[in-house]
């Protein structure tokens, strides 16, 4: 197939990790006989420096004209004092909103080769396989009124029935196609929007009779997530809670650099690692590219509907980790590499279709749960 994919490298380690993931997409295209047209555009601080706008109109137009977007990260100390609409992060938020993306899928798996990479005990983390479904288009990030002065600052946390229902349905569908457990995380003991959230999740539950639904308060859930992660399957939550809980969940996996994400809901999907621009290691060939490479696998699966190719890329990552290869953030692995060398190893591990020993679906990172389930409500 032919596909147009926009690359948004962004800031800090963004260009380094996107470079490796884009090369993986090219390698998949070659192995499987596709033509991917990869075109770069500016976003974030890089775009502010070049144009004064963290999401230039040309970038948005290019994203809208492609089938999928792969983003690295935005932000960094150079832009921290810029006014809000010229901050790199505001460009990313505008992009998510403009593309109509409301469901952010953040899978968290603990790879058997990385059980010693986490500060948590392997008895706790072993076998963890979660899907965090984070609402992405509403809540505190976008709520009005918002204001700032030296004496008083305001943010607002609104949610409408429609916003809650549409993301909750994605989570229910995913749960139905996975291990049929859904935990909805809120703060209904304090927040009105959380009360509505809980009410709507309960209203939807009878339509998904196979799914066992529970509710949890975000404070105690934050503890449960890292003390008994195997108890959870799909985790549904609002925008800010999902942001925080997914970084916390990275501790289970072994590094923030490992976790991918897919943002869905509109005609064009956005794929990005959950980490930021990592200014402390930027430009040193030290960033872990796996989160971005696994995001590229999600892109193949969700936007291009190339499930076998997605599995092939996930299997390549799996094989490289099993061989003891990683970046320096993955403590305990035998062979430590830079970003580029690890990316190259992963590319070389991509197997063409029907290759001997490909065993794609068996890899530790293989998607669990039918993407069709998620699609039916997107
Ligand atoms: N989606 C995004 O673009 C995104 C996400 C989060 C943060 N940010 C922005 O990034 C900037 C830095 O934020 P931060 O430092 O709080 O968070 P961060 O995620 O950039 O970094 C947190 C820690 O994790 C490490 N880390 C992150 N990615 C890594 C990787 N791929 N490999 C190895 N280690 C990795 C970093 O070195 C750092 O020690 C801020 O401007 C923030 O707003 C952007
Ligand atoms: C950079 C920031 C706006 C972003 C968010 O909060 O959504 C990031 O933390 C993320 O997790 O993608
Ligand atoms: Mg975040």
UniProtKB/TrEMBL annotation:
Note the superkingdom of the native organism: Bacteria
Signal sequence span is: none
Q: Where does Mg(2+) bind?
A: 219, 243, 247
One Pfam family from the record = Iso_dh
The EC category is oxidoreductase
Q: Which SMART domains match?
A: Iso_dh (SM01329)
Q: Where in the cell is it found?
A: Cytoplasm
The protein's job, in short, is: Catalyzes the oxidation of 3-carboxy-2-hydroxy-4-methylpentanoate (3-isopropylmalate) to 3-carboxy-4-methyl-2-oxopentanoate. The product decarboxylates to 4-methyl-2 oxopentanoate.
Q: What is this protein called?
A: 3-isopropylmalate dehydrogenase
Gene encoding this polypeptide? leuB_1
């Amino acid at each position: 197939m032919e596909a147009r994919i926009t690359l948004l490298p962004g800031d800090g380690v963004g260009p380094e990790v996107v470079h490796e993931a884009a090369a993986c997409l090219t390698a998949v295209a070659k192995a499987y006989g596709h033509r991917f047209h990869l075109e770069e555009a500016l976003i974030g601080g890089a775009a502010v420096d070049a144009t004064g706008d963290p999401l230039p109109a040309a970038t948005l137009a290019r994203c809208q004209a492609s089938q999928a977007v792969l983003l690295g990260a935005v932000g960094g100390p150079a832009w921290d004092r810029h006014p809000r609409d010229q901050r790199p992060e505001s460009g990313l938020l505008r992009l998510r909103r403009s593309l109509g993306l409301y469901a952010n899928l953040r899978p968290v798996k603990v790879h058997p080769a990385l059980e010693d990479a986490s500060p948590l005990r392997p008895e706790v983390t072993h076998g963890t396989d979660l899907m965090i479904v984070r609402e992405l288009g509403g809540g505190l990030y976008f709520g009005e009124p918002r204001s700032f002065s030296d004496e008083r600052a305001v943010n607002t946390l609104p949610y409408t029935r429609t916003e809650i229902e549409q993301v909750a349905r994605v989570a229910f569908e995913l749960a139905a196609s996975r291990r049929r457990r859904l935990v909805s995380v809120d703060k209904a003991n304090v927040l009105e929007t959380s009360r509505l959230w809980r009410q709507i999740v309960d209203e939807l539950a009878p339509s998904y009779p196979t799914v066992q639904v529970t509710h949890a308060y975000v404070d105690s859930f934050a503890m449960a997530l890292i003390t008994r992660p195997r108890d959870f399957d799909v985790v549904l939550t609002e925008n800010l809670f999902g942001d925080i809980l997914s970084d916390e969940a990275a501790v289970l996996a072994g590094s923030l650099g490992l976790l991918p994400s897919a943002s869905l809901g509109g005609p064009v999907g956005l794929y990005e690692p959950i980490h930021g621009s990592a200014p402390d290691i930027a430009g040193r060939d030290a960033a872990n590219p796996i989160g971005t490479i696994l995001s590229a696998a999600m892109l193949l699966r969700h936007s291009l509907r190339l499930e076998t190719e997605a599995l092939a890329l996930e299997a390549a990552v799996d094989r490289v980790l099993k061989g003891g290869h990683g970046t320096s953030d993955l403590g305990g692995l035998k062979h430590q590499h830079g970003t580029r060398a690890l990316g190259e190893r992963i590319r070389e591990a991509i197997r063409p279709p029907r290759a001997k020993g490909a065993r794609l679906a068996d890899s530790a990172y293989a998607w669990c749960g039918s993407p069709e389930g998620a699609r039916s409500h997107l």
